[in-house]
Design brief:
The chain has one domain: Ribonucleoside hydrolase-like (Inosine-uridine Nucleoside N-ribohydrolase, Chain A, Alpha-Beta Complex), CATH 3.90.245. The strands form three sheets. Strands 4-3-2-1-5-6-7-13-10 form a nine-stranded mixed beta sheet, with helices on both faces. The longest helix is centred in the last third of the chain and has 17 residues. By secondary structure, the protein is of the alpha/beta class. The two termini are 21 Å apart. 38% of the residues lie in helices and 20% in strands. α1 links the parallel β1 and β2. α1 runs antiparallel to α11. The protein binds alpha-D-ribofuranose and calcium ion. Alpha-D-ribofuranose binds next to α1, α7 and α12. The site of calcium ion has 10 residues, from α1. One of its GO terms (molecular function) is purine nucleosidase activity.
Length: 307
């Protein structure tokens, strides 16, 4: 059993990541820490509770984290995720309220519990704050898996917020820089693999989910419906990061030194891989360069469709 903490900005695909994590017997979700990203943390923290309670989980704690990035102005993505952040699908509001103190929860839990995997699927603001407060965390976190970056390792490895920058890194590049320079050596699930067409839900998949006997699958279909109508497919960025904590053999990875760019209209949030063989730089990240898309999709659909 892998103990995990999910740090996220629900968000349509974050919601599906929660569903996959909860329907995976290999994982024990210790808690969710919310951050501003797709939507403001006032909404992303409540959205995590909305998904948990729709699935019948009343005991997993959700903590409200950073409302703004370390330095930059907050940029959100309601145009993608809907005004409410969950596709404006009308999921019921939760009974519970988010708890305060996401960063304190991260520091306390990662200090007291051994072998915790941190799966980050939003901007890295909370994690950077935790590392600034307690640098020893780099020795306490068993594994950091992050959905973020575009590393140019596949034909799909280009940006989605700018031509070169992925949204999570773009929103808080200073936080990402702290994480990449911390020595944590994260496993990076970037757009290089998450936008692989073979790892993407089709409209047909969504229609099948909508008529599934599983309420979780039907709820997932509701959340992604407008996105699928609009774009014709649904990329599963965040569920893929959760999948990496369950089945690492779905991925081929390589170790690189990654630079995070913090400035420039088009380059802010760019994650650059050092490829010059004569430049000797210690690798600071393990980056996914291939995913078995069909096997990932099969696992995702199977597990969210479990009763
Ligand atoms: O670039 C995709 C990432 O940005 C996903 O985590 C999505 O939820 C948004 O946060
Ligand atoms: Ca996200």
């Amino acid at each position: 059993m892998v103990k995990v903490i999910l740090d996220m900005d629900p968000g349509i695909d974050d919601a599906l990541a929660i569903m996959l994590a909860l329907n995976s017997p290999e994982l024990e979700v210790l808690g969710i820490t919310a951050v501003s990203g797709n939507v403001h943390v006032d909404k992303s923290s409540v959205n995590a509770l909305r998904v948990l309670e729709t699935m019948g989980y009343m005991d997993i704690p959700v903590y409200r984290g950073a409302a703004t990035p370390l330095v930059k102005e907050l940029v959100t993505a309601e145009w993608v995720h809907g005004e409410d952040g969950l596709g404006d699908a009308g999921l019921p509001m939760p009974m519970r309220k988010p708890l305060e103190g996401a960063v304190k929860f991260l520091v306390d839990m990662l200090t007291s519990e051994r072998n915790v995997t941190l799966v980050a699927t939003g901007p890295l603001t909370n994690i950077a704050h935790a590392l600034l407060i307690e640098p020893q965390l780099t020795r306490r976190i068993s594994r950091l898996i992050l959905m973020g970056g575009a590393y140019g390792l596949t034909p799909y490895g280009y940006g989605n917020e700018t031509p070169v920058s992925e949204f999570n890194i773009y929103v808080d590049p200073e936080a990402a820089k702290i994480v990449f320079q911390s020595g944590l050596k994260p496993l990076c699930v970037g757009l290089d693999v998450t936008t692989d067409p073979k790892a993407t839900l089709s409209k047909n998949d969504v229609e099948k989910m909508a008529s599934s006997s599983s309420e979780t699958a039907r709820t997932a279909a509701k959340i992604v419906w407008r996105f699928a109508e609009r774009f014709g497919f649904v990329q599963l960025h965040d569920p893929m990061a959760v999948a990496a904590s369950i089945k690492p053999d779905l991925f081929k990875t390589s170790h690189h030194h990654v630079y995070v760019v913090c400035e420039g209209e088009l380059t802010r949030g760019q994650t650059i891989v050092e490829k010059r063989f004569w430049v000797k730089k210690e690798p600071n990240a393990e980056v996914c360069e291939q995913v078995d898309g069909p096997r990932f999709l099969e696992m995702f659909l199977e597990r969210i469709s479990e009763a």
